[in-house]
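Sanity check

After download, print the first record. It should look like this:
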Amino acid sequence: MIRWNGLFGAHSLKLHASLTIIGEIGKTYAIDYVTDLADPAESDWRCLEYLQVPASPYLWTDQSSPATGRRFYRAVAMEPPENMVFIPPGSFRMGSSENEVGRSEEDGPQTDVIISRGFWMGKYEVTQGEYEAVMGNNPSQFKGDPNRPVEQVSWFNARDYCVKLTERERLAGRIAPNSLYRLPTEAEWEYACRAGTSTRFSYGDDPGLTDFVDYEWYGPNSDGQTHPVGQKLPNRWGLHDMHGNIGEWCQDWHVKALPGGRVIDPQGPATGWARVIRGGGYRNHLIASFCRSSTRYAHNSPGTYGPGFRVVLAPVQP
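Expected structure tokens:
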């Protein structure tokens, strides 16, 4: 288990409890709480959020509970989960401008999105080896290397993988009892893909498409098949294959237009006929149409086999 690291204290700030963290600047901490300090077991602690400490000391405020609630807090230094990257909270403009080359009507209207909590995201698409270790089978068309991304999975398969991975990691004590692996929301996916950029691709507009082969596998350079993850350059946040190799399932139901305006942690519609797929793939020749940061499509119902996926690790909110 991750050991306690840092100092903490309880305060009252704007009717919310808060925690003073004295720790390593830039380090990611799990902010946990219990409602009874009488010799709590490790399994009694619940994770509220993951926080990358920007200063020390740092005053963190619990926005989920008023100061009158009974909670006791701790900050636990985290080591990065294997092959995962921490994505800090922030804001970005989702979708594409009307003059972006290759734009689809589904890319708009542009929407100002706030991602209020940080999360861990897979550095790579889930590989065939990882999928088989959890699910006991490998449905992929392109076998022969366990480091290729798994494909030919339905949205339900991807969801079930996340459920089983969560059960395994909770049982091993590697994640908090209320943390879970899941698919990223569409907004989380684009936020992570852009990594602070507003250009067509995460590395720039690349009008002549001269740099694209350094970052992704797509039609002209893929030889009609997937390739082992991590062979191309990552984006600024260390994520590989966000624009190509294999399309990726997201958590949301698809809707033909973005909400517009300003939204916080959008989850998509409550119902629908198809789930969102993000990221281009090894078969895409129309680069500007299918491999941009804002490209969104839903040619597949949740039971259709074809895409791959990557996972997010985050606490379940109370």
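If your output differs, re-run the checksum step. Summary of this record's structure: Residues 1-13 have pLDDT under 50 and may be disordered.
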